[in-house]
Structure formats: C-alpha cells, structure tokens
Amino acid sequence: MISWKRVTAIGYFFFSLLVIYMMSVFDHEYMVGEGALTNICIAFENLVYDDTRDILAPVTLTLIIPFIHISSRRKFKSLFYNLLLIFLLTFWIWRFFLRFSLCF
Predict the structure, then answer these.
(1) Rounded distance, CA 101 to CA 104, Å?
(2) Would you give per-residue pLDDT tens digits along the chain (104 residues)?
(3) Domain count, the chain
(4) Can you give the residue range of the structural domain that contains 84?
(5) Which of 6, 9, 95, 101 falls between 20 and 30 A from 73, CA-CA?
(6) Residue 83's closest CA among 25, 91, 26, 2?
(7) Measured distance CA(61)–CA(85) in Å, rounded
(8) Is the pTM of the predicted complex or chain greater than 0.85?
(9) Secondary structure class of 88 (helix, strand, coil)
C-alpha cells in the first residue's frame, strides 16, 4: 500500500510540472506550425517578445526545493524521491534553457 507521503509527493510533483510548464511557455508558441513558423527556433529568433525566463526560472526553481530537502534528509538513498528530483530538475532545465539554446 502506498503511504500518504508518497501520494502527496506525487501530487506535488505533478503540480510542479504543470507550473513549470505554464511559466516557461513562450508567448508566441501557439503560432508555431502556422505559415512560415515551422518550429519554435524560428519563432524565437524572428518575433519580438518579452522574455520572462530570467524572472520565472528562479521562481519555479523554488518548487524543486522540497524534493531536494526530502532527498537530502534521506541521504539520497530513496530511489523514489531521487527519480522525482532528477526528472523535475531535467524538465526545468529543458523548459527554461536547453530548448532554445539548441537552436542552430
């Protein structure tokens, strides 16, 4: 049987994923696929936009702090919490930094 701590951690994990996703959406991302905008790189390079990643990245990073705290209290031996932490950090890095820096 799954404990309430794990259920709460899974719920908070999905909440964090949703908030990170919503805060990292590019303003004109909905236009990709229409006309000359075939991918996100072209839209990012050619459209004038207000880049809020410098403010929203640290704000959403605070959502990951509880997983870092839980994992460190367990001395990083809990596979469950470590996987949640690694996936959340990877998703955060991808959404805020890597998907635009990989545009050539």
Answers:
(1) 8
(2) 789 999 999 999 999 999 999 998 877 777 777 777 777 777 777 776 667 778 899 999 999 999 999 999 989 999 999 999 999 999 999 988 888 777 76
(3) 1
(4) 4-101
(5) 95
(6) 91
(7) 12
(8) no
(9) helix
